[in-house]
Design brief:
The structure holds two protein chains of two kinds.
Chain A lengths: L2 H7 L10 E6 L5 H18 L3 E5 L3 H6 L4 E4 L7 H15 L1 E7 L2 H14 L2 E6 L1 E5 L4 E8 L4 E7 L4 E5 L16 E4 L11 E5 L14 E5 L6 H13 L3 E4 L1 H5 L20 E5 L5 H7 L4 E6 L12 E4 L2 H11 L1
Parallel strand pairs in A: 1-2, 1-4, 2-3, 3-10, 4-9, 5-9, 12-13, 12-14, 14-15, 15-16
Antiparallel strand pairs in A: 6-7, 7-8
Helix pairs in contact in A: 4-5, 6-9
Chain B lengths: L1 E5 L2 E3 L4 E4 L4 E4 L4 E3 L1 H17 L2 E7 L4 H11 L3 E5 L6 H15 L4 E5 L9 H9 L2 E12 L2 E6 L19 E6 L2 E5 L11 H9 L4 E4 L15 E7 L8 E2 L2 H10 L1
Helix pairs in contact in B: 2-5, 3-4
Classes of the chains: A alpha/beta, B alpha/beta.
């Protein structure tokens, strides 16, 4: 029996104009990410007295265990962006969702945007937090602006309210394998308007980025390092897609070139992640690297000044630590 | 062929300080610049103009802030600059107005947008494609026109680095195409925008008719089209950075993988 039939039996008034329920759309995304959306939708649905629907090609029992009341299964070929938009738009025109959650992947953002336009709703992309106001029946979404310098809180004045949510925004939900739910296959419209054609792999080499503008930097210094561990550091840098650099002492030891010195007397950097292994981190070095958004420091001496401006610290000799780190990555 | 590139002026982040502790954004210098992704979109359009020949039209919302962006685009090589007289529209209103502008101009075959605005959202491309009923190609780092189709190259991973620091290599770049008319969204990794020639900057600023102005009425927009959907409810801030936190090697490996 359909949940809508059930509501009718229980004498609840169903108006066709009513927007209702929370919908989670999983688009070929790892279940872990989708599960956290389902968990959050479940929590909000309990506050609102609504149902949680899940649309996806994945495992329906999993979705029910993580909080879905009803699973609409979709053929995997309907999950390409163009096809997903027509399928979902046709489906939602009759079902009228109140809130829709997508995972914030490139495809998720694309489908959510198209859907919002077609259903005349509102959309907020790349949310990192959602706050439900039950009385106003609206969600205030926080989404990062200026590369995450701060978050903008946005509410939507139109329904359906569509949100794409970043991975890790919500805690992992409890899995309850005893939950009950229903599964129904969803039809896709016969005529899928697919206009974007994939042409396969392309020959493209991204333009070289200078150390100054690098997104990730791995730097070595002389403390607790030898030329062998510096070479391992270089391997780690390659493996994680980081630029290899060092401080003045690493240059003096001949491990790096002059244009790889980080500090005011070398290159000033502002990467997303800065990893420093065996760097003391005095004022001159700090001034050149402090623009980093996240700093990881490894140094044998726990009094090293770098620990006072590093987000994550490990006291240890890089020549012992780096081989283990390389193995872990 | 005509290419429309919408430009969005945003507050220059160099002129502002975000204080997480005070929970405020302090703007020291109210300076506006063109959204970086939009500038890459303009460069993509100008390259198509250089290779295949096309009319490049830039559009921005005004009345203030946008003039410099538009004049800079004219100096870089845009053929027409249009200022739409709607002050700071949200994404919904922008999409309505840009779709109306396309109909007003007629014969717009390709719209190239920046895939995200630094100060707001990331859905203008798909929404505009839907509103115009054009094909959509997102995440482009390169864009060209081959015959009657737009062709793009999309990076395998939008952040351009190996996935999750695991053994999985970063997927290869892929090519995609769609018949015109189409909307293409260019990322901030697109081609480096050119510097305008000094003489062109002077010409653009001296030309009183460099910017054409259009009102919502000219575009046939009704009041309901101008009703914003996104309502700002303030700002929130990431937690303050804590320094000196000890971690194990496993923690470090997972942090590197996630950032």
């Amino acid at each position: 029996m359909d949940v809508y039939d059930l509501q009718a039996l229980m004498g609840e008034n169903i108006e066709a104009e009513d927007y209702r329920d929370l919908w989670v759309v999983g688009l070929a995304v790892e279940m872990q990410h989708v599960a956290s959306l389902l968990g959050e939708a479940r929590r909000m649905a309990d506050m609102l007295g609504a149902y949680v629907h899940y649309i996806g090609a994945g495992d329906s029992d999993e979705a029910i265990a993580f909080g879905a009341d009803r699973v609409h299964t979709l053929a995997a070929e309907s999950l390409a962006p163009d096809a997903a938009v027509s399928t979902l738009a046709t489906f939602f025109e009759t079902r009228k969702p109140e809130f829709v959650f997508f995972p914030a992947t490139d495809i998720g953002n694309e489908v959510a945007g198209c859907l919002a336009q077609r259903l005349k709703g509102g959309v907020v992309c790349n949310c990192i937090a959602l706050r439900l106001d039950e009385s106003a029946r609206e969600i205030v979404a926080s989404h990062p602006v200026y590369d995450g310098a701060y978050y903008l809180d946005t509410a939507l004045a139109a329904k359906p309210q569509i949100f794409t949510v970043r991975e890790g925004a919500f805690p992992a939900p409890l899995r309850d394998s005893g939950r009950n739910g229903e599964t129904e296959p969803m039809d896709s419209p016969a005529d899928l308007a697919i206009r974007a054609r994939a042409l396969g792999e392309a020959d493209y080499t991204p333009p070289a980025v200078s150390l100054r503008k690098a997104a990730r930097v791995f730097a070595v210094g002389r403390a607790g390092n030898d030329s062998e561990s510096a070479a391992i550091g270089k391997q780690i840098a390659e493996k994680i897609g980081a630029h290899f650099a060092g401080d003045r002492s690493a240059f003096d030891s001949g491990w790096i070139e002059e244009d790889q010195i980080v500090g005011v007397n070398g290159i000033e950097i502002a990467p997303d992640v800065y990893i420093a292994a065996g760097i003391w981190g005095d004022t001159l070095h700090r001034a050149g690297a402090e623009g980093a958004k996240f700093v990881i420091a490894i140094h044998p001496d726990k009094r090293a000044p770098i620990f006072s401006w590093a987000d994550t610290c490990l006291v240890g000799k890089p020549k012992d630590v780096l081989p283990k780190l390389l193995a872990l990555l | 062929m005509n290419i429309l590139v919408p430009l969005k002026p945003i507050l220059d982040p160099a002129g502002m300080i975000v204080n997480r502790k005070a929970g405020r954004v302090f703007v020291n210098r109210e300076n506006y610049m063109t959204n970086p992704a939009d500038k890459r979109a303009l460069e993509a359009a100008l390259r198509i103009k250089d290779e295949a020949g096309a009319g490049v039209i830039v559009a921005a919302f005004g009345p203030d802030r946008s003039a410099d962006s538009l004049l800079e685009a004219r100096a870089m090589g845009a053929d027409r600059a249009i200022l739409i007289d709607i002050p700071s529209p949200d994404e919904t209103v922008s999409v309505h107005a840009l779709a109306a502008l396309c109909h007003h101009l007629g014969q717009v075959d390709l719209v190239i947008v920046g895939d995200s605005a630094l100060d707001t959202g990331a859905s203008i491309g798909p929404r505009l494609a839907e509103a115009l009923d054009f094909a959509f190609l997102g995440g482009a780092v390169q864009c060209s026109v081959e015959g009657n189709a737009a062709r793009i190259i999309r990076r395998g991973d939008s952040r351009g680095r190996p996935d999750r620091a695991s053994a999985r290599p970063a997927p290869a770049a892929t090519a995609h195409e769609a018949d015109l008319p189409a909307v293409v969204a260019v990322t901030r990794e697109g081609a480096q925008p050119r510097y305008p020639h000094g003489g062109n900057i002077i010409t653009a600023y001296r030309d009183a008719n460099a910017i054409e102005s259009l009102s919502p009425a000219d575009l046939g927009l009704s009041d309901s089209d101008l009703q914003p959907v996104a309502i700002e409810r303030g700002q929130s801030f990431p937690p303050e950075r804590e320094f000196g936190k000890q971690a194990s090697l496993d923690d470090i490996a997972s942090v590197i993988g996630h950032r």
